[in-house]
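Quick board copy: two proteins, each given as sequence then tokens.
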Amino acid sequence: MSTLFDLPQETPRAEPAEDGDAVRELLADLNPQQRDAVRHNGSPLLVVAGAGSGKTRVLTRRIAYLLAARDVHPGQIMAITFTNKAAAEMKQRVVELVGRRANAMWVSTFHSMCVRLLRREAKTLGMSSNFSVYDADDTRRLITLVEHDLDLDVKRYAPRAIAAQVSNLKNELRSPVDAAELAGSDFERRVAEVYELYQRRLHEANA
């Protein structure tokens, strides 16, 4: 199956083919604003509207329009939703509009998309593709074990607080080495120590 990574880098057709019955049907029941959003070409477009105003309809018609009128390959479309239920519903709506080829689209939640990409590239990270994803409870448990291994007082260095600091460092793309170099207080130095061993334990657990 073609994907975002192995498709030829082709630009969608600038002049849409809107003379077909299928394309006209996609646009027929939309209001002027919705139709403009579906047919938009060029710069990124932000659609802001209230609940029940047809945002999902616009998104699904937009995807179907790209497939039908702009010669976009389904594997070149990435659609992000908030929930797995919404992702499944969106894909099903597009399948109903353009057929089963829409199954090649990438439609999922942000987190599911990231995990999918990471599993594809796991070897680049020195990991197996069947790695585990630790949730907040898993993280705190592992950090508690790491603190015990480092002979740190978990009452003084609460695992929840350490976990929050490690999360902040990761959000800032800071490595354990960076954390150690930037540490200016005793607490920050302990965070860096825990962070380094925590990452090592994650790698050992393929997580």
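And the next:
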Amino acid sequence: MSRKVSLSFLCGVLLILRGEPVQSQERAGDKPLILKGATVIDGLGSPAIPEAVIVVERDRIKAVGRKGSPYPPDANVIDLSGKFIIPGLVDSHVHYQPWLGEMFLNYGVTSVMIPGGDYSTADREASYQSTARMPRIFATGGRPALQPSMTREQVRAAVQEWLRNRKPEYANPSVYNDGNAQVYRWAAEDLHEAGLVWFGHTENAPQSIKDGQDVVEHLWGFAEALMSPKQLEGFQRGEYLHWGLFLKDQRRLDPMIKDAVSKGVYLNPTLMYEMGSQSALARKFQTELQTLFRDETLMSYFPKNLADGAVFKLQAARNFSRRHENLVAFSLLPPADRKQFDEAYKLCGQLLKKWAAAGGKIMAGTDDPSSGFAGLTLHMEMEMLVESGLTPMQALQSATGWGSSALLTSRRKPAAKPPVGILAEGAYADLVVLNANPLENISNSKKIERVMKGGQFVKLGYTPNYGKPRNAVAIIPRIPEPEISAVTPSIIEGNREFEITVHGVGFIGNSVVRAGDTAAPTTFVNIRTLRAKIPGQNRARTLKLSVFNAPPDGGLSNSIFLKNGNESSTGVLELSAIAPYRVVEGNHEFDLTVTGAGFVPT
């Protein structure tokens, strides 16, 4: 008994040292726990088991059986008749931060995969404690230090050093492209030899799959592969609204899908992150988020800008054209452009439907907190997968069996950890009790009555000041803070009304030019240019101009001063433009050109 107390105490100390809140879970006790009477959906795609019996011993599932299956007579029994039990959910694409932990658990997400996340072995082991109020962490421990110029032996050495020092559960090298293809091909050989899968971004999905990629992050690697060299160059210059528009070449896309599926490749589409606003469910999603953000306890630590950004992102399109800002409100889009965004989403859905129909596996992931919340967005991802043409069973598998650590350990002999994301003997006792059938309507996955992690029921709800972001957070893409580089004309004459052109970066459709403290009528030209009408008025010798982008995020730009040509100079320095207006960080030397008035030779 004393040994158990000591271990629990040490676990608590570890979590406190890591800055994690410690909150008791509801304990099942040392006796076996029996969950009986519910319909069980095991995450493996098997038919649902009505009135099933689940036997839980400590943190593992001992057995899953049909009605009448035997169980120990001294067990604790919970009757869940009329309920539905699914595995604890797995979000396969998370940029995890400690303050997100209980949000995931409240929505039944008991495991997260962190591509590129530099989480230590100690952090990961702490997350496996049943009492830790956070999901289980599967991480890559950073990335191997690969460079395109490396030799075969250098690649092997870099991978081996990373394996020794980081103890990764899978691999997430940086973006695959033509320049590093050979190095990644060699790295894939070493990763597979070590029993790890390659999960990552790619600029050419068909080729990276041939070179050994196991999981394709996002869908744009297929779209770019379908672009001609001229189209790809144009896309990179900002000539097209969205990469999804290039998925319409079904004659070439179909063989790509067939080849990838035949190789057992998984797809991680991150629909909610990329295109949640283009779903027919977007308005419903907005309402759900707005309701959630009225929880005062949650908002005691959840950043308001992130909450506002999550709602705004569902009202805007993620744009890749230089005609608009990165995240452009639908209210500012011409109808023809809105139609193209809708077409891009439709084509992405067609790809996913064909992928699943061909027997391909999809891993649901959210890229959170980039979408604005954690936990709830995984359920929205499943809804969008069903909207794309997957069955509710397939959508559920994408966040359970298909997205589980069974994939992470599929190349290992034997598997490194008991699996998560499934309900089967030997799996961790992570599960979600629902009040309605998700196979009838996938949105029923949100009707959560209980969540179990490691054999213990989680106390649902939010904890005051559970945690705070260590650094500023925002949705991606975020509303930028504008910067002015130049204004023309740089000199004004008299007090009459006049028009100015403002040059810079970070301009959006509703940017407002301010003359002093007064908002001027502003026209958005493009992401680098605004025009504004400055009203006639009694002006001082100089007029201060700035640009304001409204929340979420956004902010006020630097100020530029226009000289009134009718006023005599007083010798005061006045700045009207600088170039370049943005430089790469570092200690390198560069030239700066400053334009203005009042300069004198030295």
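Board note added afterward: Confidence is low (pLDDT under 50) at residues 1-24.
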